[in-house]
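Lab notes, practical 5.
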Amino acid sequence: MYFESPVKKYLLSLLIVSSFLNAEETKTMDPNDIKMGPVLHKTLPDDLLNRIKSVTDVFEIVDGINYKQSVNLYQRDLNPEANLVIYEEMARVYKEFCETRCSSQVERMDVYKLTLIRSMFKENEVLQRVDLNSLSQQEALSIIKSYKLKAEPIAVYSE
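Output from the prediction step:
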């Protein structure tokens, strides 16, 4: 499984997921209870693969997911384009902030956690869900406010 490191398990444990059976219900799930779904797309269009490569190039240093693994995850996604748009926005915010800093893994992880959690939660809910190790609250708020898409919980479907 791609999420074996403690950092990835920490991040995944924060994920908010919507149940397929009851779209109104949103709950936090233990990542160990989530199983990989089947491959839904045997191939992906070249333009999508290029965009996946761009996002992977930004985040592999932080999340450890390489291009091949990333493509496999998108192939399992019900709507890979929609998920990729979210990760592209996360990458934009990450790169914008890290232009002037992020020299350490701790800084990079703080920015990654903030963008990831912001992608799933409203601005005013992010700081209470992230433990910062190197960034100030003011810097964190700057990152949070830079993210422009609507918060979208990750959907997990029941068998």
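Observations recorded by the TA: Confidence is low (pLDDT under 50) at residues 1-23. Residues 6-156 form one domain.
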